[in-house]
Task: structure prediction
Amino acid sequence: MIRVGIVGYGYWGPNIVRNFSKTKGVIVSAICDLSPQKLNRAQLDYPSISITSDFHTLLNDSTVDAIAIATPVSTHYDLGLAALKAGKHLFLEKPMTETSAQAKHLIEEAEKRNLTLIIDHTFIYTPAVRKIRELIDGGDLGNFYFYDSTRINLGNFQHDVNVIWDLAVHDLSILDYLFQDTPLAISATGAAHVRGQPENAAYITLFFNNNAIAHINVNWLSPIKLRHTLIGGDRKMILYDDIEVTEKVKVYDKGVDIAGDTESIYQILKGYRVGDMWAPHLASTEALSAEIEHFIDCIEKNIQPITNGAMGLRIIQLLEAASTSMLHQGAPVEIKDKD
Amino acid sequence: MIRVGIVGYGYWGPNIVRNFSKTKGVIVSAICDLSPQKLNRAQLDYPSISITSDFHTLLNDSTVDAIAIATPVSTHYDLGLAALKAGKHLFLEKPMTETSAQAKHLIEEAEKRNLTLIIDHTFIYTPAVRKIRELIDGGDLGNFYFYDSTRINLGNFQHDVNVIWDLAVHDLSILDYLFQDTPLAISATGAAHVRGQPENAAYITLFFNNNAIAHINVNWLSPIKLRHTLIGGDRKMILYDDIEVTEKVKVYDKGVDIAGDTESIYQILKGYRVGDMWAPHLASTEALSAEIEHFIDCIEKNIQPITNGAMGLRIIQLLEAASTSMLHQGAPVEIKDKD
Amino acid sequence: MIRVGIVGYGYWGPNIVRNFSKTKGVIVSAICDLSPQKLNRAQLDYPSISITSDFHTLLNDSTVDAIAIATPVSTHYDLGLAALKAGKHLFLEKPMTETSAQAKHLIEEAEKRNLTLIIDHTFIYTPAVRKIRELIDGGDLGNFYFYDSTRINLGNFQHDVNVIWDLAVHDLSILDYLFQDTPLAISATGAAHVRGQPENAAYITLFFNNNAIAHINVNWLSPIKLRHTLIGGDRKMILYDDIEVTEKVKVYDKGVDIAGDTESIYQILKGYRVGDMWAPHLASTEALSAEIEHFIDCIEKNIQPITNGAMGLRIIQLLEAASTSMLHQGAPVEIKDKD
Amino acid sequence: MIRVGIVGYGYWGPNIVRNFSKTKGVIVSAICDLSPQKLNRAQLDYPSISITSDFHTLLNDSTVDAIAIATPVSTHYDLGLAALKAGKHLFLEKPMTETSAQAKHLIEEAEKRNLTLIIDHTFIYTPAVRKIRELIDGGDLGNFYFYDSTRINLGNFQHDVNVIWDLAVHDLSILDYLFQDTPLAISATGAAHVRGQPENAAYITLFFNNNAIAHINVNWLSPIKLRHTLIGGDRKMILYDDIEVTEKVKVYDKGVDIAGDTESIYQILKGYRVGDMWAPHLASTEALSAEIEHFIDCIEKNIQPITNGAMGLRIIQLLEAASTSMLHQGAPVEIKDKD
Result:
């Protein structure tokens, strides 16, 4: 039986508590938050779980095996480091930390103590993203051409991080998982429309080997909500629309037919291929539930999680590079530090 | 009565002939094309219009008042210049020329001879774009925040120009018309997925005064066809979806409510405004027909067209800047030469 | 303070408990269900509410002021009658009873004892239906032409009642509320595709005065889920799509223009009117919450609820007539017993 | 070479002329219309085809092999009969005639003279309907449960026939083609909202063997245009949406799983089956072009067309029965005369 303490009962915390609570082999032993109102709400929702406003109670409780942190990003490093130093396995909200230096330190600390560190990149555990990875691994897509994602809506303005750290982080993690490749360079542009607030609209391009390209459009100020991603390959193309209830993933047998020696520097376009469309049935598993089961499994078997610290770090490096590029109106930033 | 000769009977030419033919006060006196097959088709479609494969026949015909050119962009400068030098008013397909130097030369030539020069930026004459301009001029939108356009589909790969010159040109003209403002700088990224062919996917950001931003996503290799543009202001927001049959323009009373002195460098977000949506009825006029009537009117009254040479030149300058930026993975290019 | 006992903790019961629990001035004193599993779940969800499998506990508890019943329709009459006879106000799930005779009896019993009886036709309390009623009352629609509803999906097959009693009941209540008129006659057709089970697909037409007509299409065996209703009048038309998240109600300025003396028996169609579309913003109130507040208010002020017993009875009479017509392949059934 | 004379150059006639003109082995020898304006337009569109306002010119021209009639339905019988009596093959617009007696007479006349008679039920020749028939014939659908079609829009009010004869005729022909089964009975309801004009909204149910059922919803007064048809079987379900540009036919692996001896009168629902969706690629052939080629082929090979007179007659019988039922508010009408 793994005993877990959960820190932060704001927007996402209640989902974490709910899912840990229903996971077999897990006991949620305490919920911690600085806000009396939030603690009060936690108490009403879970009368049998003890509450505390003092994080050290969890650190000092030797029966607590793991700590889950769902607090603002600016606190991730300090709280995470303290948890690891207290010998607790760590479930850490995304983005992992404010800087890649912090992320590296957490990774080292977890390794040194042989503790499991998982970063909560929830999308990686959705049936849709799992199915797309399966299609890519099976060769259905062929060579990767482009990934083009639009993730916009009205709301959830953040005050401490810009829209890239809030929304593009999802696409960066999905890209990392799907293609297992680090981009060569990144270019980002954006704008802040409320004076003194972080950028609320941003556009990011990532350059990969072989002319593959990824583009991410994020916006907190759109009149409509869109969550769609196009993935193009030379064999098939995919539309992943997360707003669709039943047909989130559509696979298109579309593309261009090309003539000529693939070794030549020139290719000739012979025509367009327009075939069937297919929407595979997806399981209705809740992603966070699958992720928490995976976390528990990694603790018990002492194996690396899919969304481990190294992945969390790669995402932070891309977020840093994108922010730097955005400051310079899209000037490209090379991604050097690849591990 | 204005007599018009039309050059080029390929993809767009037949639409130009059809619309000139039905315009009052216009006679289409000849159709010119180098391809015997296309000339033959023109003859079948319009038995009463004379055909020729020799452009000089049109130039030398003193009864011809105006020439319309719908040929590949690489020929625009030579054919257009010859037409102007022969004293003909000029209806020129977009993009205007291959370079801004060529565009400037055509403008000078038209001015010197007091001839009407119109560039065929057809979208400017659509009821949808007209309505949006009306809403902006009426103050409905408020301060301009962002323009975000997605114009993607499978097909129409070009061999001589990249996807920016083919598709983004529409958005650049719409932006120019709607906001009557030249961007300060431009950043563009893109990729060519068929070796030796021009870029088929591109992403462009334009930076305007007051943190206003525009973004354009164009792609010849998308499994689905999208044509949607979001326009955000501080009062209202607009969704312009050109694929919709009856509700192409939707106006949303949505946004953020901001507190604090507008003079201060900080503003505080108080909340989100979510109100009614309204889709104004649009006339069903064909844009090209309205454009041709405007061209004839400009000739007769000796006035400047809305899409005149100066506008055509501004678009070429942006296309050049975008292509330059794309070569440097998004490095921003300032727009200096503003008139 | 009103103390409420809730009977039935199956599909809908938990929503009723949740909404009564959060209503000011209400205490949920007990939850009753025959199933130990469901009682157990209720206990876990609401540790502070007492549970019982014996309905008489609620009847005999003199501190219980009202009883809410969310059990299968076959039990509504017996349980409801017992509750009223025990002097409890009654919140009764729809459809009210299995027969109109039973419904009349419940109404009499409630009247005799001066108890509040509300039928849970939840749709009447949605912001969408409220807004449509407001538009109709304000004259926006003009004369009522037609109501045409499609309410289909895969699932929720019932074993004791056919699809009319399960799904069409919603439209019958909406029609009753919107137009406050009883139909003259009803014709219904349908089919059962699983042998020995009730009809899973049905089509109902209701005839009103002045050629107004309503049509309802319900199906438990559709591959896609649809919930859309068209309402046509001579001035405006409405599309109510309950699946839409933000624009559930659209008002169209569309119709036909008619010439000639409106007193004549002939009218001439002059043309079509195609104007703006408008989607009013709707409040995000939960319908069941508004309904329960209304129920409490009716108890305290001793006034009739909007969805009172008389309305519940009218719906039962239409359900009976529709079922009769369905048995005779659409042969019309007059609605005589109009109260 | 088959020489064809075409009668009627109104709404549909130009499409017929255009398609006959481009069909190999066909010469359009004359266009006939009573309206000088329409004849004038025909002359402008086709300068090389002779025009006439006198139908007898076509009848008396011995070089004319076939006559195509695209005039109002009230003239179909007289014109069609005259054409057959003059020994011409006949391409007749739908609905075939005003009465089944007239339809039978035309069939007899064509048989007697060994002439080809085709009724222009165009939908039967669309790639979408062809594909659905292929899926049904291949057993994909399994046992037929229901067909549920919605065909509504604003416009095309007719003055001589009601909306059933104008719009439902399409679904009746599609049903006939797909299932090759005659219904046992029909029930129809409807209403006329413009006084003195025919019914503009109607709802039809057709009863088939084995509890299979079809339903058709047609309306000339809807604010939105819908063209969707659901087809349910025990193995697969189909959504045919004719407004979709690229994915008109979607095949769903959805349904219910049933237990128990299929010979028993009771079946038990075990659960719902929710699997993949698949949208087969459809050819982009124009239906009318395929139909005309088929007509010419039938003439040359002396074989029966798919949409022959017997099929046209079956549709007329259903239209008559539906109209009769509609007069009696849905009272069912048995379909006796099945051949």
